[in-house]
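Aim 2, interim progress. The first record below pairs a target sequence with its structure tokens.
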Amino acid sequence: MTTALCPGSFDPPTNGHVDVIERTIASFDQVVVAVVDNPAKDTFFTTDERLAMLTEMFGERARVVTFSGLLVDFADETGADVVVKGLRTVADYEFEFQMAQMNSHLSGMETVFMATKADWSFVSSSLVREVARLGGSVSGLVPDVVESALKERLR
């Protein structure tokens, strides 16, 4: 059985994240969606809120957990065979390639890159937060549960 690890901050989860995770679920035996918990980072949603949204979206189809520290250590703890990272742009690739090389150097962990569908290539969590903060509609860019949470937070 092959276990894939999909790590990210997911602040908030977007339809691009959902696209990559759904395709990962279809491609691997087991999937762990891992929300990075970095107390030094100022996030829009708490770790628990992000966990709850992702759990609602993926239910039993993926195990949704949180982690802090080195990704390779967490991957070892969970028995993950591969890390799956979504790519939207060349800039994403440059950053993620460097991280993949470091993870490989540290532990031999393999990283699989999955290009997001073109429909979501312009969508990022930071842009979604910005549009929502300025009163714009994020409908169609994020799952309904995320859109509701954004509206509630910004009320």
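The second target in this work package is listed in the same format:
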Amino acid sequence: MAASLTALGRRLAGAAVAALALAALSANNASAQSLIRDAEIEETLHIYTDPLLQAAGLDPNDVDIYLVDDPSINAFVAGGQNIFVHTGLLLQARNPNEVIGVLAHETGHIAGGHGVRRREAMNQALGPALISIGLGVLAIAAGAPDAGAALISGSQAFAMANFVRYTQVQESSADQAGAEYLEATGQSGRGLISFFNDKLRPYEFMTRRVPPYMLTHPYSSDRVEALRQRVEAASHRDAVDSEDNLRRFRFMQAKLIGFIQSQGQTLNRYPLSDHSAPARYARAVAYYRVSDLTRSRQELESLIAEEPNNPYFQELMGQILFENARAEEAIAYHRRAVELAPNQPLLEIALARDLNAARQRRGADEAIPLLQSAVAREPDNAFAWRELAVSRDLRGEEALAELASAEQNFAMGDFNAAISFAERARRTLPRNTPSYQRASDIVTFAGNELRDQQPRSQQTGGRRG
């Protein structure tokens, strides 16, 4: 598991829409937290979500799911077809059906095109507000400062009131769509109701103190009652979670608890008397985090002995060994993980990192194809590009190493550095090759990004007409 604030998080800053939680004004900003990358948890969330997306007529390959390291109970859609799920939601859920219910709701937002429509609604709400501000300025100029100030301050509330009327309809629509997708996939909608009822409804008294024109979501009690009749009338209302979904859910929670919470908290949740596989998994992570390698390996080795074909047990052992300066020993575990779960970018990157660290020039020969495979599927993965730059450098391929560094910085949003590395790469790359053209593209695209970030006065040299 790796935590990082990716370029995507920065690019989506301020664009978060359709939050599930009882947000009074707006969804949580993705840039304020870290995005966690974990192949196992991402796979679980996709297995939960993909049938819902298909039921909604969407292509699962077009939808990305991101894990946000935040304890609040929240999920939201941002930037088109990106679903963000907070760790707090996954840890507070009591069963897979509750998580799947939330994902069904978010699928409803994507299928309804609510992101684009919400921006349109915001623009429409701003029109009357600007008129009110203009009238306020005129009132002040006419000698009525109190009336003018009231018009200006009231314009914000007026705009917000117009906006939330629209967003509340969207939330209710996403609830109903989510219930439809759950039924279409043979799953119960009761998890969505229980999640709203148990996790969000207790805080409703707080939101009822907020002026109604500031609430972007309906009251949770209203949402529960609006859903209840439809869910209870559905033919799959009594459907239970599959054994595979339950197993994935237990391991997902165990892994998150081991990584996010303290060792004491983890052992309280999973005491030594608990010999279940998820408990040993959580303790293996908790021991590893406090550098207790012996006990961490003991717990994990027992799991590997029981399930030698589980790629994520192999991956975790490799991670533990690598981070304890045993890169050569880690290679066998990460190699096995890649064999068991091929085409997983995060697993390929981990193996490539081991090879670079342990075998230097000889390892780079094997690492490069792995990293090329990873960036082909995740072109914005800055860590993969960094490792590719290391591999190229180990092979003495200076221009290609600089090109990879340009890609890394472009993915991170450091456009000045991206241009610098790309320009250096172009000096020695053969012309009329794909690598040279890519370096030129980075110079162009990064330059456009920098110009877009500049105030208009700077772009025009400060001249006035």
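The beta strands are 2-4, 16-17, 34-37, 64-69, 75-78, 82-86. This observation will shape the mutagenesis plan for the next reporting period.
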